[in-house]
Description:
The complex is a heterodimer.
Chain A: H1 7-14, H2 28-32, H3 35-54, H4 64-109, H5 122-144, H6 160-200, H7 207-236
Chain B: H1 7-123, H2 125-137
Amino acid sequence: MEHPILFISVILEALGLPVPHGPVGHTFLEQLCAPYMTYTWLVMAFLYFVAKLTVSDLEMVPGKGQNFWEIVIGGLDNFFADNMGRKLTDEFFPMLATFGLYIAVANLIGLIPGFMSPTASLNTTLALTIIVWLSHHYIGLREHGLSYYKHFMGPMWWLVPLMLPIELISNLARLISLSIRLFGNIMAKETLLGILFMLAGAFFAPLPIMLLGVLVSLVQAMVFVLLSVVYFSQAQDHAH
Amino acid sequence: MVTIDITMVIQIINMVVLMFLLNKVLYQPVKKILKERSEKMLGMQNDVAKFQQNARLRQEEVDAKMSKASGKAKAALDAARAEAQAAGEEKMASIKAEVDEFKENQLADIKQQIGEAETNLKADLDGFANAIASKILGRAL
């Protein structure tokens, strides 16, 4: 379910572009004009310009904007380095930090009337998850070479027939769990807010859910990044 | 919303583009300034440690000089005190010798005067005896 009025869709429609009225577009252009795509680009532009404006003039003694980014980036860097080592952090910091910032902002803008969360679409969350899933296998193969298969063999050779299917399924399930956890939480928030707006928006009925929505948005961003860090770290470690 | 289509691939491209953009405008500059500040702080800490070491060495040097000067002053004071003591004793000895000599002279004078008085008295003894006897008898002898 979407908000009744999404201002980017209204603008695109006014420009004569085909905005899909159902959950999905049928033509390629309709798919590109789907709200989760347009709001993704909005979030991207927002992050880019905010970063550009606040970090344009870096000084040794930081101002307010620089201070905020230093705390965020310094904090994330320390957290990643503590959990998966300095080498992996230096390599994968841009990916993980971007996911954290993008998911947090994308989740939060859905709380503003006229906006929607791009993360309320499975295409968005699955795209993020596929990048993480492929990356953690890349890390595993790079660190261990072909011995990476031992990660799926269990602790003892005679347990292999049991452990191999379990490990394969659990690894593939990461694709589903990571993407659907984020998608489900945010879509539930969007749906609930939409229903409450329609039923009793004039009486501020959605307000408590909006407060919870702030919490859910930040927690889900944190959970996604935390699990990605754990997967990277496990792929880097030796098999039992 | 639960449908998966070509937009998923576009979202992957979007995310890769966003990673590169944010890495360029945000992460690299902020990490660079954090690293520079950390290096500067480390350099300043090294300077502080060096200054503290210098201050400690200076203090030790000053303490050693003070201790040496104090020893010298004590030695000079002891020497001056000993010299004054010796000079005082010498002065006292000379005064004592002078006084003794004066006393000896005075005693000798007194002895001499006593001897003279005895001699005079002895010389006048007969005259005194006659005078006393004349007085007692009431007539000249």
